[in-house]
Amino acid sequence: MSWAFLCDLLSGVNKYSTGIGRIWVAVVFLFRLLVYVAAAENIWKHEHDEFECNIQQPGCENVCFDHFFPVSHMRLWALQLIMVSTPSLLVIFHVAYRENREKHHNQKLYKNPGKIDGGLLCTYLISLILKTGLEIFFLVLFYKLYNGFKIPRLVKCDIKPCPNTVDCYISKPTEKMIFLYFLVATSCLCIILNLSELSYLMFKYSIKCYLKRNVKKQQ
C-alpha cells in the first residue's frame, strides 16, 4: 500500500498548524504511520494462514477466523489513519480558497492566507472536532469488534460447520498485543493533543475578543 498521499497531506497540514498541531503531525507520522509500514504490517501479514484449529473439518477454520477477526487489525488501523488525517484537508482547501480569491481579485485580501483567524479559525476548529470524534469512534469500534483490547492465545469455536467445540490458536499473540497497546496509546495521545489544541485556540480567541471589546469601550 502506498502512503505517499497521506505523507503529502501531513506535510501540507504542518504548514498551517499551531505548535500543538505540529506535535500531532509528528506523532501521526513517526509513531503511527512509520511503525505501521515498518513493523506492524508484517506481523499481521499472514494472520489467516497462521491461524490454526485442532480439526481438519473443511470450512471450520475459515468460519472461526472470520468470527473472531471480522476485520483485520491492520486494515482497520490503516482506515483509522486515513480517516483521522482527512479532516485536515478542510484547512488546506480553505487556505487554497483564500489564495485563489486573492488571485481572482488581483489584490492582497489577507495579511497571510495561512494565518488561523476568521473563517479559517472556524474551519480549523471543525477539523479538530472531527479528528477527535473519529479517533474516539475507532477506539470504540476496536473495543466492540474484538471484545476489548487484547489478543488471546487460544479461542474456542463451535460455529457450523465445526462438528463440536474446537480449539483455535492465534500466532504471535504477545507481539500483536504489544502493537495493539501501542495503537491504543498513540490514539489516546492524539486525542489529548487535539483537545489541547482546541482548548488553546478557543482560549486565545476569547482573550482576543475580550481585548478588542475593552479597546472599543476605552475609545
Automatic annotation (TrEMBL):
Xref: InterPro entries: Connexin, Connexin_CCC, Connexin_CS, Connexin_N, Connexin_N_sf
Pfam families found in the cross-reference section: Connexin (PF00029)
Keyword Transmembrane set for record: yes
Keywords, alphabetical: Cell junction, Cell membrane, Gap junction, Membrane, Transmembrane, Transmembrane helix
Biological process according to GO: cell-cell signaling
Boundaries of every Connexin N-terminal domain copy: 42-75
Residue span, Connexin cysteine-rich domain: 134-201
TM annotation in the entry: 20-39, 77-97, 118-143, 178-203
Main localization (coarse): other
Subcellular location: Cell junction, Gap junction; Cell membrane
Gene Ontology terms: cellular component: connexin complex
Molecular function terms, GO-annotated: gap junction channel activity
Membrane topology recorded in Swiss-Prot or TrEMBL: Multi-pass membrane protein
Functional note: One gap junction consists of a cluster of closely packed pairs of transmembrane channels, the connexons, through which materials of low MW diffuse from one cell to a neighboring cell.
Quaternary context: A connexon is composed of a hexamer of connexins.
Family statement drawn from the similarity comment of this UniProt entry: Belongs to the connexin family.
Protein name: Gap junction protein
Species the sequence originates in: Peucedramus taeniatus (Olive warbler)
